[in-house]
Amino acid sequence: MPIVNKKRKVSERPKKVQDDSASDSESSPPPQPAEPEAEETAKSFADLGIIPQLCEACANMGYKNPTPIQAKTIPTSLEGRDVIGLAETGSGKTAAFALPMLQALMESPQAFFGLVLSPTRELAYQISQNFESLGSVIGVKSTVLVGGMDMVAQSIALGKKPHIIVATPGRLVDHLENTKGFSLRNLKYLAIDEADRLLDMDFGDSLDKILKVLPRERRTFLFSATMSSKVESLQRASLSNPTRIAVASKYQTVSTLQSSYLLIPHKSKNLYLTYILNEFAGKSAIIFTSTVHETQRVSYMLRTLGFGAIPLHGQLSQSSRLGALNKFRSGSRDILVATDVAARGLDIPSVDVVMNFDLPTDSKTYIHRVGRTARAGKSGVAISFVTQYDLEVFMRIEYALGKKLPEYDVDKEEVMVIAERVNEAQRQAVIEMKSFDEKRGSRGKNKFGKGKRSRDDMDQEEG
């Protein structure tokens, strides 16, 4: 069992810093909305123009009312317009492009009707599940094409002529070049999800190859939480006279999220992590680290202390990554220790706490990490560990957010009570890490010795 200390409710902790005077310190001009505010008055999906069968599917999935991004983009999409949708993470972007695509599919059903491009394997599987759930009442079939899985099995799935393909760009290019009889020349809809992340992961060449083989006469949806110059270039290359819709500023977290920071010496991070996890005992938590090594080490340490921690990073096999996510989703493990492979797009509704054990290097990644909690109107807590080496980065994050974050209050005397046990757990974790590194080294000599990543490996997150 984990060490248990005295618990305090989050709402009771004092806030040492509260300064919103900088709320307008950095803001970019808001994108032009497609329509004024008409869609915001929509009370249901039917009001947006969604057909009864799909409204029934939304109700079955627990979608009671459209989110702001859905309310603004769906009517425009149903009119046959290309759409650029900008919204904070956790705002319901997937349904915003899935529902118009499925409605158009019902009107003119065909194989290979729609294609969705995703930056990561986990997000691709999640999107595919959403399509099949929303399209269950009309028998929609979806296929996932990602690296790390058998290409022959994927080719067989393509031979069954699915309606929707969800893919990472590298593996899709592999199939376009090598799978006999596979073509997207009759594609009607393209959706590009997490577009900024796709481009950050060096998928530019693969995207160019994909766009060249797609028909010009198609509808295209481009969705992202942030807009960058790379995404602007992709917009010009892939969309025709698009309507740009935004429901949030460039850097914004949801109002139900309690964000704070903890200023501590670097050498004390493991100690304070254990203390805070004890305070949130019984709650689900995601702990973000910067490297594969730290993800594994922290997992080993927490297991030694009795916590149900499981690692998730890009150098695990695909089955291990999906297994870790499923265990966390099901509640059999309540702590997920992850690199930024878990930062984007994954919908895990039960996350109570997000901890930035290693502070992200940029504000955009911070937004996505803390967006794993406080989703769909629920409340959540985000705590960032700030050491003497992180002050400059943390100040940049605060500047981008436009506000000062409060400091998380801890009792240092209580923290020191568990120091001996934590130090022993750290020593045990170091021993286990030696074995892990030896196994990884023997397996990865050829794989990691190459200068460039193969397409098959490209959809794994770095670190």
In spatial order, strands of the major sheet run 3-4-2-5-6-1-7
Number of helices, counting only DSSP H or I runs of 4 residues or more: 17
Give the distance, in angstroms, between the N- and C-terminal Cα atoms.
30 Å
Main β sheet profile? 7 strands, parallel
Low-confidence stretches: 3-41, 444-452
CATH architecture assignment of the largest domain: 3-Layer(aba) Sandwich
Helix proportion: 40-55%
Which percent band covers the strand fraction? 5-15%
Structural class: alpha/beta
| Radius of gyration (Å) | 23 Å
Q: How many domains?
A: 2
The CATH topology of the largest domain corresponds to Rossmann fold
Q: What global shape is seen?
A: globular
Mean pLDDT: 84
- Could you spell the SSE succession in H and E letters? HHEHEHEHEHEHHEHEEHEHEHEEHEHHHH
Question: How many strand elements?
Answer: 13
Keywords:
17 helices, EC 3.6.4.13, globular, Rossmann fold, helicase activity, 40% helix, RNA-binding, alpha/beta, seven-stranded parallel β-sheet, ribosome biogenesis, 463 residues, single chain, ATP-dependent rRNA helicase RRP3
Topology:
Blueprint: H1 52-60, H2 68-78, E1 83-86, H3 93-107, E2 114-117, H4 121-134, E3 142-145, H5 151-159, E4 164-167, H6 169-178, E5 189-192, H7 195-200, H8 204-213, E6 219-224, H9 229-238, E7 243-246, E8 257-263, H10 269-279, E9 285-288, H11 292-304, E10 309-312, H12 318-330, E11 335-338, E12 353-356, H13 363-370, E13 380-386, H14 391-401, H15 412-417, H16 419-444, H17 455-458
Parallel strand pairs: 1-6, 1-7, 2-4, 2-5, 3-4, 5-6, 8-13, 9-11, 9-12, 10-11, 12-13
Helix pairs in contact: 2-3, 3-4, 6-8, 11-16
